[in-house]
């Protein structure tokens, strides 16, 4: 696998040939881990979703990309559109890092429809000669044809004096007569914060107002990907704290993806009123940088990067990495999110998942009359590859084990994930399988677990229910379409 120098990773895209890009795209397309119905890079690296919005009668989504290798290189935004939130089309233009304020990458941000244009606010990354960092908050317009016009000067030129240049991921919201931008930041004392700026117009002038107050302190050394959305008028704050103490929240990944729910939001004091405790947004192996937004009619949708920072994946050896989760519609049950994947237009045909084989392109739903004991195994037919789900009615826990599902991923952080459910009386779950990713939704989406897997070889699979100790259950299966 290629060893990249800093110069190679950050040289302009014009340095690379179309022949190389075509070769990399074919390599990704031919991979046994090429996904059927999840968003993936055409080549190279995919990570944070950005600019998720509804504009010009289409859903718009961008993802952060370096198309020439599975490394953190010169980032751009790749543009996708959809009419159903499941079938996504790569558009002809992308947001490229082509100004003096983004010489080392167009980093994450959000989008807001404004009449016949979509406004994008994002972070431009610049490195100095001695590799110091400077972060600029930039603006751009996109018209109905998908062409971009960038504002000539930054919206926010620098962070506050007592904050570092780790200052990024603006979430832009319109409220009343003003626009607000919520930015993740790292203070000079190595503590994470969310800084809020306000402007009378999206183009500025932007001025600092205050920090976001959400009832928690000591949330690690950096907060990334802040998202404030509203569900039934309740504020839901979704974010990624880096370096979070596990005494604050139990998690097993390198960094968690978390959320807090409040009773209301005070725009005058920028305070989430009566915030809940901190929750894991996803309890699986691989989900980060979730981006959520409210539609004009008040619905809330979210999508996340099915990957983690500072983590290597087996597909790196094929020069590509990354996937996005399914789009999830969010609702609330008390102070807990319910996550419902948008998959209606993916359903193809039904099948019998107990007696027919699986090709890792299925949806399978189980409903147990009582909380089960034992385990369910997704077993390859011609190898030892398998995914195992354990059930413990005494403790009301579900454990997912991917240790034997092909090549190792992030073993340093464990090969199992366990969740404790609130109900001991019943269990239902839906498992979505794609060629190298699963998404598991428990009890109507009250808990979600996402994970990548990389089988050693192409194979067919079967579900082994023989270890469920005569538990009574109903099961349904559906083949899913490719997008």
Question: What topology does this entry show?
Answer:
Layout: H1 6-9, H2 18-29, E1 44-55, E2 58-66, E3 76-82, E4 89-90, E5 106-114, E6 117-127, E7 133-142, E8 148-150, E9 163-175, E10 178-187, E11 192-199, E12 207-211, E13 222-231, E14 234-242, E15 258-261, E16 264-266, E17 271-273, E18 279-280, E19 288-294, E20 300-305, E21 320-321, E22 328-333, E23 336-341, E24 347-351, E25 362-368, E26 374-380, E27 386-392, E28 397-401, E29 416-420, E30 427-434, E31 437-442, E32 447-452, E33 461-464, E34 473-480
**What structural class do the secondary elements suggest?**
mainly beta
Strand order of the largest sheet: 24-34-25-30-31-32
Radius of gyration: 22 Å
Overall average residue pLDDT = 96
The CATH architecture name of the largest domain reads 5 Propeller
Please mark out the parts with pLDDT under 50 across 5 or more consecutive residues, or reply none. Answer: none
- Count of discrete domains: 2
CATH fold assignment of the largest domain: Tachylectin-2, Chain A
- What is the strand content? over 45%
Helical segment count: 2
Give the beta-strand count. Answer: 34
Could you give a short account of the major beta sheet? Answer: 6 strands, antiparallel
């Amino acid at each position: 696998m290629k060893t990249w120098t800093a110069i190679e990773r950050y040289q302009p895209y014009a340095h690379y040939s179309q022949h190389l890009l075509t070769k990399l795209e074919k390599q990704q397309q031919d991979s046994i881990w090429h996904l059927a119905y999840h968003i993936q890079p055409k080549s190279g690296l995919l990570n944070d979703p950005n600019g998720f919005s509804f504009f010009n009668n289409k859903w718009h989504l961008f993802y952060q990309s370096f198309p020439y290798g599975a490394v953190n290189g010169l980032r751009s935004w790749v543009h996708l559109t959809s009419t159903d939130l499941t079938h996504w089309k790569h558009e002809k233009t992308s947001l490229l890092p082509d100004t003096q304020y983004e010489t080392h990458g167009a980093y994450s941000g959000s989008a807001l429809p404004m009449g016949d244009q979509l406004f994008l606010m994002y972070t431009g990354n610049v490195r100095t000669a001695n590799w110091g960092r400077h972060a600029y908050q930039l603006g751009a317009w996109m018209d109905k044809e998908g062409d971009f016009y960038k504002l000539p000067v930054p919206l926010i030129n620098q962070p506050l004096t007592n904050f570092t240049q780790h200052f990024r991921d603006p979430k832009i919201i319109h409220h009343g007569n003003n626009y607000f931008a919520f930015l993740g930041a790292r203070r000079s004392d190595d503590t994470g914060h969310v800084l809020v700026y306000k402007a009378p117009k999206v183009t500025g002038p932007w001025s600092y107002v205050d920090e976001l107050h959400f009832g928690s302190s000591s949330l690690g050394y950096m907060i990334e990907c802040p998202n404030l959305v509203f569900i039934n008028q309740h504020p839901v704050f979704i974010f990624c704290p880096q370096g979070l103490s596990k005494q604050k929240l139990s998690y097993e990944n390198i960094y968690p993806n978390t959320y807090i729910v409040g009773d209301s939001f005070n725009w005058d004091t920028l305070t989430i009123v009566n915030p809940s405790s901190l929750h894991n947004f996803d309890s699986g192996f691989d989900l980060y940088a979730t981006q959520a937004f409210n539609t004009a009619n008040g619905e809330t949708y979210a999508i996340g990067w099915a990957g983690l920072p500072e983590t290597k994946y087996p597909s790196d050896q094929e020069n590509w990495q990354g996937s996005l989760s399914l789009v999830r519609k969010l609702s609330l049950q008390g102070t807990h999110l319910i996550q419902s994947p948008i998959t209606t237009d993916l359903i193809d045909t039904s099948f019998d998942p107990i007696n027919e084989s699986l090709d890792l392109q299925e949806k399978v739903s189980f409903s147990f009359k009582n909380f089960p004991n034992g385990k369910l195994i997704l077993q390859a037919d011609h190898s030892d590859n398998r995914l195992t789900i354990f059930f413990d009615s005494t403790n009301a826990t579900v454990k997912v084990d991917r240790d034997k599902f092909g090549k190792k991923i992030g073993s340093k952080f464990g090969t199992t994930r366990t969740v404790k459910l609130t109900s001991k009386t019943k269990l239902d779950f839906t498992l979505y399988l794609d060629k190298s990713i699963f998404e598991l939704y428990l009890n109507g989406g009250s808990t979600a677990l996402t994970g990548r897997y990389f089988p050693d070889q192409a194979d067919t699979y079967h579900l082994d229910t023989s270890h469920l100790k005569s538990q009574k259950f109903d099961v349904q299966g559906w083949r899913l379409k490719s997008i």
